Write a sequence for this structure.
């Protein structure tokens, strides 16, 4: 197979273009309390008889592609949102992956992922899988949305890294950097996700007028976006907007024209989520983290109000040079980079779901997750409640270790990608620091799971007064102090309105 599919006919949308469905009422059954960390995690409920899945996959594909009637179908892997099956046949030139997704963001996540991969194939040399067919509807024998794509050659970087010589490590990130440079050179005027233009009416606000297609050249903004182009920039698909109960909450999903609009909506969704906790074991959406937030809710709400009051000072209404929109894969991790196991050349970049167009400062110099330290998280609230001390010392030590291990690859990578925007101005540098700090607190894994860490960030930056700083410092230094002590100190601190703003880092308006 492969030669039987004429080039240029992909991807094939098997489902009809349809009005997006609302998230199902029983969406909570795809979420449960993580046994170790205590927060909500996505999972596949019930028993999964792979033989039954394989029979239904064969039925689904055979309707459109008779060649798959006698394919060899095997369970391949399971991810955060997906179950994957491999398809092969002795007479086929290629192998394929069939991916089934749980309905965390019905219609939009699948439609955007397919369009994003195709956009990248058109405008960069990034090696991405060719999507053969997809369904953005669950109206099929499986009852789920699905994607059929080529199975790319190679092995994940995580399985090869320890055996790779230093020179090969540097070379693979130099190769990746050349592709990423093409990607981040594509610039956009709004923040959201890419879709094919034939679903524009479903992914754009009702009052949106699609502009004429802009000239095509290497410096064009919104390249190929327009009514006579193949793509549109539509509503955002991002975990901060659909994680757990957030998918039900009303409010704009974009596309957003300014960083402030995007941040304000994230703040609103976090606020509502904190107001709708599920602290009782056995109820829908229950998790240990909600239980701990509920036990400390007065102090958590007070901290959130202090944080929310900072937004007007930290994030101006007007965009700066750091706010140009870029499309960047924010999970270029050891799992999603495939290499030839012999030559160590890059063979594929996979997992493009929820890859959005966001402000350039959000990309942290377009650094791949594997080369960064951004994956490290402080101790979650649930662990503190169990008496487990903060893990800051371990994180610090491992960061130092990774400087030596990753240093040459980081240096080579950034020398090729270069800066994403002009950050020479001290004012721009201050805005970037402020905005990155705010964005980090708005991630699901920060305030919602680790509010004491937000308190530490606010204190360290002098956004809140010294009584909190002294107590939070004790926590960070591993003194025997409980999370309750940290929260209690918040009850006695002056409000943000009493802080001398001229002595802090927050005056982004100057």
């Amino acid at each position: 197979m492969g030669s039987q599919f004429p080039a240029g006919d992909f991807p094939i949308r098997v489902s009809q273009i349809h009005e997006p469905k609302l998230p199902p009422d029983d969406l909570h059954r795809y979420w449960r309390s993580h046994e170790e960390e205590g927060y909500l995690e996505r999972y596949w409920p019930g028993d999964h008889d792979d033989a039954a899945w394989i029979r239904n996959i064969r039925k689904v594909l055979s309707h459109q592609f008779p060649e798959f009637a006698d394919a060899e179908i095997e369970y391949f892997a399971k991810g955060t949102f997906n179950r994957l099956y491999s398809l092969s046949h002795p007479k086929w030139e290629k192998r394929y992956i069939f991916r089934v997704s749980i309905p965390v963001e019905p219609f939009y996540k699948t439609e955007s992922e397919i369009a994003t991969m195709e956009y990248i194939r058109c405008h960069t040399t990034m090696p991405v899988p060719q999507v053969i067919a997809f369904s953005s509807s669950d109206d099929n024998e499986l009852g789920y949305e699905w994607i059929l794509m080529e199975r790319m050659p190679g092995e994940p970087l995580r399985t090869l890294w320890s055996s790779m010589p230093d020179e090969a490590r540097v070379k693979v990130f130099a190769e990746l950097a050349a592709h990423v440079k093409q990607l981040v050179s594509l610039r956009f005027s709004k923040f959201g996700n890419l879709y094919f233009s034939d679903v524009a009416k479903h992914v754009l606000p009702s009052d949106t007028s699609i502009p004429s297609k802009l000239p095509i050249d290497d410096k064009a903004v919104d390249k190929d976006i327009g009514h006579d182009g193949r793509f549109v920039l539509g509503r955002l698909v991002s975990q901060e907007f659909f994680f757990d109960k957030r998918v039900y909450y009303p409010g704009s999903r974009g596309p957003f024209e300014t960083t402030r609009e995007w941040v304000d909506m994230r703040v609103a969704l976090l606020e509502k989520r904190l107001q709708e906790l599920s602290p009782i074991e056995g109820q829908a959406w229950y998790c240990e983290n909600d239980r701990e937030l509920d036990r400390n809710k007065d102090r958590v709400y007070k901290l959130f109000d202090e944080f929310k009051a900072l937004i007007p000072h930290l994030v101006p209404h007007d965009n700066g040079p750091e706010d140009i929109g870029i499309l960047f894969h924010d999970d270029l991790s050891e799992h999603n980079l495939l290499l030839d196991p012999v030559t160590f050349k890059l063979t594929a970049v996979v997992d493009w779901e929820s890859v959005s167009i966001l402000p350039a400062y959000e990309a942290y110099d377009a650094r791949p997750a594997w080369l960064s330290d951004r994956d490290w998280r402080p101790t979650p609230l649930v662990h503190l409640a169990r008496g487990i001390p903060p893990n800051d010392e371990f994180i610090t030590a491992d960061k130092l270790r990774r400087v030596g291990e990753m240093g040459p690859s980081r240096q080579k990578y950034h020398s090729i990608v270069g800066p994403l925007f002009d950050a020479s101005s001290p004012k721009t540098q201050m805005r970037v620091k402020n905005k990155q700090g705010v964005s980090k607190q708005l991630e699901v894994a920060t305030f919602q799971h680790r509010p004491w860490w937000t308190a530490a960030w606010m204190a360290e930056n002098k956004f809140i007064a010294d009584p909190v700083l002294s107590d939070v410092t004790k926590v960070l230094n591993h003194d025997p102090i409980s999370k309750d002590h940290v929260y209690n100190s918040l009850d006695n601190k002056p409000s943000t309105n009493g802080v001398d703003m001229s002595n802090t880092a927050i005056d982004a308006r100057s």
User: Anything to note?
Assistant: Residues 191 and 375 are 23 Å apart (CA to CA). Residues 466-510 have pLDDT under 50 and may be disordered.
